[in-house]
Design goal:
- The structure is a single chain.
- By secondary structure, this protein is mainly β.
- It has a single domain, classed as Beta Barrel (OB fold (Dihydrolipoamide Acetyltransferase, E2P)), CATH 2.40.50.140.
- 13% of the residues lie in helices and 48% in strands.
- A 5-stranded mixed β-barrel has the order 1-3-4-6-5.
- A hairpin with a 5-residue loop joins strand 3 and strand 4.
- The radius of gyration is 18 Å and the shape is globular.
Length: 141
């Protein structure tokens, strides 16, 4: 049995680029940054940030471009895809992308709320699956 599944929770690091294929499918791309913090052997705090190229298709692409922006918190569930192509300069290029299959938007900025109130609001945020019909009342803001 094989499995190719990725869960990422992070902030959008670039503007979302939305376009359509010649066949009329919507596709959006953006960078998502995740980070981790730890103490090294000497007790000093260390931080590492990783940037991930995210690709969303069809309705997910439309929702992301409409409701998310640089700095938004989002969870992406998807799969890893590696691609290669030959550039105009004749050099072979490689990229690794996360193809999003579902997305959960983080809370809209609520500045000044107590953590307990924020946790309760986070539980009310719906998960949007690729291919689901979206009802405007399901959008958390």
């Amino acid at each position: 049995m094989n499995l190719n599944k990725v869960f990422l929770i992070g902030r959008i690091a670039t503007d979302i680029e939305m376009r359509s294929t010649p066949a009329g499918q919507n596709v959006s791309t953006f960078s998502l940054v995740t980070n981790r913090k730890w103490k090294d052997k000497s007790g000093q705090m260390q931080e590492d940030s990783q940037f991930h190229r995210i690709v969303l298709w069809n309705r997910l692409a439309e929702i992301a471009s409409q409701f998310l922006s640089k700095g938004s918190l989002v969870m992406i569930e998807g799969r890893i895809q590696n691609r290669n192509w030959e550039g105009k300069d004749g050099v072979k290029r490689y990229t690794t992308e996360i193809i999003g299959e579902s997305m959960q938007m983080g809370p809209k900025g609520q500045g000044g709320e107590a953590p307990k109130q924020q946790e309760q609001q986070d539980d009310d945020i719906p998960v949007i699956e690729d291919g689901d019909e979206i009802d405007i009342k399901d959008i958390p803001f």
